[in-house]
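Notes taken during the Thursday session

The instructor put the following on the board and asked us to keep it in front of us for the whole hour. The protein is Co-chaperone DjlA N-terminal domain-containing protein. We were told not to look anything up and to reason only from what is written here. First, the residues (136 in total):
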Amino acid sequence: MTYTLEEKKAILSELIMMAHADQHIKKEEIAFIHAIGKRLELDEKELSHMLEHPEELETMIPKQFVKRVVHFHRLMLMMHIDGHVDAAELQLLYQTALRYGIRKSTVDTLLNTMEKYPHGEIPPSELMSIHQRNHN
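Then, after some discussion, the predicted C-alpha cells were revealed:
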C-alpha cells in the first residue's frame, strides 16, 4: 500500500495521540511508533518532532476503505501494546471509529477477536471479513 507524506504523518499522528491518551507514554508505545514510522519510510527527525510536539499533530480520515481498516487495526494494536487498556484509550478508539464510519458493533467484534490472537494481531483476511460484514 502506498501513502502520501500527508497520509504517513496522519497515521503517525493518530498513533501518537493514542499513546498519549492515558497520559503515560510508555517505551513499548514509542518503539511501536518508531517501527511504523520506519515501515512508512518517514524521516526520523520528522517523527521525533511529532513525538516531542503532540499539540501540533493533525489527523485525516483515510479515503480508501482498506487504508481505514489497516490503520484502525494499528490503533487497536497501539491501545493494547502495553498490556493495559485505559478508559481514555477506549474512548479515543470509539471516537476514531465514528469518524472513520466504523460501527460500534464492529469495534466490539474486533476487540473480542483480538483476544484470540497473540499480541492482538488479527489475520488480514479475518480483519477484512469483520469489517465487510458490518460495512455500510
